[in-house]
Amino acid sequence: MSSTVILFGDLMSQPTRAVIWFMMLNKIPHEFRLISIGNLEQRSKEFEKINPFKKLPVIQYENQTIFESHTILRWLSQQFKLPQYYDFNDLNNRCKVDMYLDWHHLGLRKATAGYFFQKFILPKFGKSESEDMVKDAELNIPRAFKEIESIFLANGKNDYLIGENVTIADFSCYCEINQLEVLNYDFTPYPILSNWMERMKQFEGFKESHKIIHKIASQPKL
Amino acid sequence: MSDKKIILYGDLVSQPVRAVYWFLVINNIEFEFKEVLLGKKEARTDEYSKINPLQKMPALKYKGDIYIESHNILRFLSQEFNLNQYYGETLKEKTKVDTYLDWHHLGIRTFAQSLFAQKYLMPKFGTGLYNDKNLNAEEGVPLGLKQIESVFLKNGENKYIVGDHLTIADFSCYCELKQLDGINYDFTPYKSIQKWRKLMESLDGYKETNIKINEVASSHQ
User: Fold this and answer.
1) B8: part of which helix (H) or strand (E)?
2) When comparing pLDDT for B4 and B7, which is higher?
3) CATH top-level class for B91-219?
4) How many domains does chain A have?
5) Interface mutation vs chain B, best among A19, A68, A128, most B CBs within 10 Å
6) Does Cell division appear among the keywords (chain A) (predicted)?
């Protein structure tokens, strides 16, 4: 079995970007296999055999298949001995990272991914948005951003989400938020968040992992 | 030091509070339970915000530190109290538990929580209170249940969520599904889930943990 990580995903997917960026930054040998969301390839019978949840990303390594991006990021940090991102020797450090990772799904992603789906994906398929879902997101995205600023970034005292150092939490969070640039989302009310976003862009692998989303973001808006 | 004692903040009508409470009881970990009543919106008070600025429950205090997010708390307790069987000894075992825990939020909780809000909380307390009108809950809950049945329980091949032994994933999953008893949700199409639920209900601490939600369930008949 190969000791290269095989990553199944699509750079349009936030969690796929978080995982590939993390591997690029840490020079973890990997092979990328595109599962095109636009063609609904993640729902194919073939892909279902790899991930029965029909979601991206998935990695395979030796004879292990792992899905759920946070599980993958925790696994990569431990398997490839990168304790600075998720410290397998320090339970309290892991708890801080885990606190963010657990909060992320319903605290941030539900609103941001829901909003993106309503505003970007549905129109592509000629469908109209759900007013309730948009309203829900418009209420919850600002709430989430304020919580990230005041609690995780500690009103600017923290350079990164859980303190002075970048961890796997930052990659997950960044890739989720960055998606909204496609919709020209206004980040000016969130200067602390914006500063952190600038800081994240300095990490190796950023450009490469975001090339598709940047291309879409730079296209003229209707 | 007196703060070596665990303080758990929460309300037993909350699914994740029950998961943590049950885990503490079953492992005979000494703790003090401080009720933060959801019905009275006590999680939104300034006082509670000092404990958990995210204004959610549960929160757990131990040796002066505060732990937030139920999965984080369950992982922490398993490791701090050397209950490694519940989270896993090896990276491979932990990864299996993590997969369920990470899937849980958007795989089942968001839908189960919305359905409960739509069918129980909104009619009882008015629509203005809850902005979470997740329109897909009626479809999302059966989809999540089928996935638990086929992917995690492997149609009965697995005794528990990640295999043949009990882990923290089971407590989280059980407590989320239990909420649906409050709206008389029909679990009969899910044979493996039903069997697994019975198994969970035979564990120590079940009755005590679920007393409030069982009251809700019986009043809704």
Assistant:
1) strand B6-10
2) B7
3) mainly alpha
4) 2
5) A68
6) no
